[in-house]
Sequence to fold (389 residues):
Amino acid sequence: MPDSKRVRIIFSPSGKEGQFPVGTTVLQAAQELGVDIDSICGGQACCGRCQVKPMAGKFVREGLVSSDDHLGPLSADEHQCQASGQLEPGSRLSCQASLLADVKIDVPASSQVHRQLVRKDYEEHPIELDPLIHLYFVRVPVPDPDSGPGDTGLELLCATLAKDRGLSGLQAGPEVLEPLQSALRNDDRQVTVAVRDASQIVAVWPGLRDQAYGAAVDVGSTTIAVQLCDLSSGETLASTGAMNPQIRFGEDLMSRVSYAMQNPAGAGQMTRAVRSAINELLEKAIRLADIDASQVLEVTLVGNPVMHHLLLGLDPAPLGAAPFALTVDHAVEVPAAELDLQLAACARAYALPCIAGHVGADTAAVLLAESPWQKDEVSLIIDIGTNAE
Fold:
């Protein structure tokens, strides 16, 4: 039974909070505050759908320190759910978890009754395509057994591209060697080669491939949007979106910066969360478009300065106070794997530059898309998002 001592509970992402007697279950508190948690069994611990996650750390803006031990120990029903694999690691059944001390609770999308519809529409502009990636279909000759060095598969491929396509001085990384070796096992030795910027061989496939793909990712404070595009036609093949999971660490930029400053592992937690969400959206877009993931070769990323820094694994703390100094103000291009993006080994990630401490890569992308310098009239760009820029 609840006792007379009252403790504070905050729910994320709704931000709803209240004070309740010790012993009150999380589900009871949620119901009183109007936080809709899925519980079709009515709190009998038999549906497993009311799962929530206690958050750990110091939340300065809310003036609260939260920990998983601020809830009572797992009940027998929770142990049973855990043993059966129904209860996710780190999660609790809100109908069983009782309040012991102040706590912040994350209600994941899967446990929300009224799940948020996340969608970012876009308007297509006519543009002249100039993709960085070009595909070439060639036949690699069989090596001459009497020739000396310089007759390897890679050397023969480069020589063929130079002779037939005028591409000289091409470079190739180690990630290309195994796919090339595999492709050249076919009797016809016909391969499709992806070349970036007329200088780098980035992918090799057996036979004919006539499409390469790229993804555009907009990391907002509240939502993340992904567009999957055909690099040769410019066509958008799939669009996906989701809530930014960083919201459980703070609902706006400054609260996330505060969380990173007050919790030594905070920035890393937020970096892992956003990268994981991007991977899920990329996977969904690839599935919707029904394409081969190995042909997604380019990812372009934008976001406000804090989102940009956290995505790249940079400390956002300098952006929380004057002079709001950026760690980097030029474009960043790295292998997609360095950002934990689960794409082909040759995929590259390109983060547009931030313009200033409060003007991010998302604004740079808008400027590129709208080209206001080409217009006679004055243009005004307004972003009424979470942070109301």
